[in-house]
Each structure stands twice: as C-alpha cells, then as structure tokens.
Design goal:
150 residues; alpha+beta; 8-stranded mixed β-sheet; two-stranded antiparallel sheet; 10 strands
C-alpha cells in the first residue's frame, strides 16, 4: 500500500498535514513546527521515506490498551527517523500534545496563529486498523512530503 503524509500548512508552532493511503485522503495530521535544528519533543518529522512498525513495548501501550481495548494491538510507530525515537501516530488536538508525533483528526481550525485538529479519537479509531495492516504487511513504507497549500 502507498502511504503518504503531505504537509499543507504551517502555523507559528504547528504543521498541518493530510494522510493518504493508496491516494485516498484519510484524515488530517498535526505536528510541531518544522525546524532545521531539532528541539526534543518540539520538532516535526523531517521529510523523507520511512517505515511503519507495530510497537508493543513503548510506554503509551498501556494507556491505549485501556482507551481502545477492542482495536489496540500496539502503537503505530514511524520508524527509521534520524535523531527521533518512539514517534507514534496518536490522538490529541494541539501542537502542545504532539511530543514530536503526528496527531490525527477529522477536521481542523486555527487559534492564535496555530492549527489544531478536532475529532481525534474518531479519526484514530478509523485509521488505526488500516495503519496496523500496513505495519504488518511487506510494504511498510510511508513518505512525508512538504507541499504547502495555505
């Protein structure tokens, strides 16, 4: 499957993206600001090609096992990032909740010059099974591209 994150807009401290699987829009993603020098837990993932994997040992697993008992098999991790680790696609609404990870949502708005996303839990429940299937497949690749539209 072809999995792609396309960044479409930048706020003061945030980056808004769109997630596509097989060229079909799935949901919005929110990350921290893109920076040339990484700041721990405050920097968007560098553009590039990485892989998805199922992480069953990281700290967020217990929390997500309780929040999503019917679907959780492990965190969906973007793997192979330079100078980043434990980068999960997870729920949240503002760049302050990203900790360097993409947050998923079904909509977005702007407040004080920064993007935020809404309906994160619902988006996660919809995309998790699809991302899990990709993480367990032979083609685990995910590309991240900058293509700012607004």
């Amino acid at each position: 499957m072809k999995t792609k994150i396309i960044r479409v807009a930048e706020g003061k401290q945030s980056t808004l993206s769109q997630l596509y699987i097989n060229d079909i829009f799935q949901c919005y993603l929110l990350e921290d600001k893109i920076r040339t020098v990484k700041i721990q837990n405050q920097t968007a993932i560098p553009a590039g090609i990485y892989s998805l994997r199922l992480n069953t040992w990281g700290g967020k697993n217990a929390e997500y096992r309780q929040k999503f008992p019917k679907i959780h098999k492990g965190m969906i991790e973007i793997n192979g990032l330079p100078n980043f680790s434990f980068v999960y696609i997870h729920i949240g609404n503002t760049y302050r909740q990203t900790a360097g990870c993409p947050l998923c949502g079904f909509g977005f708005d702007v407040a004080d010059g920064d993007y935020q996303i809404v309906h994160s839990k619902e988006a996660y429940e919809m995309i998790y099974p699809k991302l899990l299937a990709i993480a367990e497949s032979n083609d685990k690749s995910i590309s991240i591209e900058n293509n700012f539209q607004f």
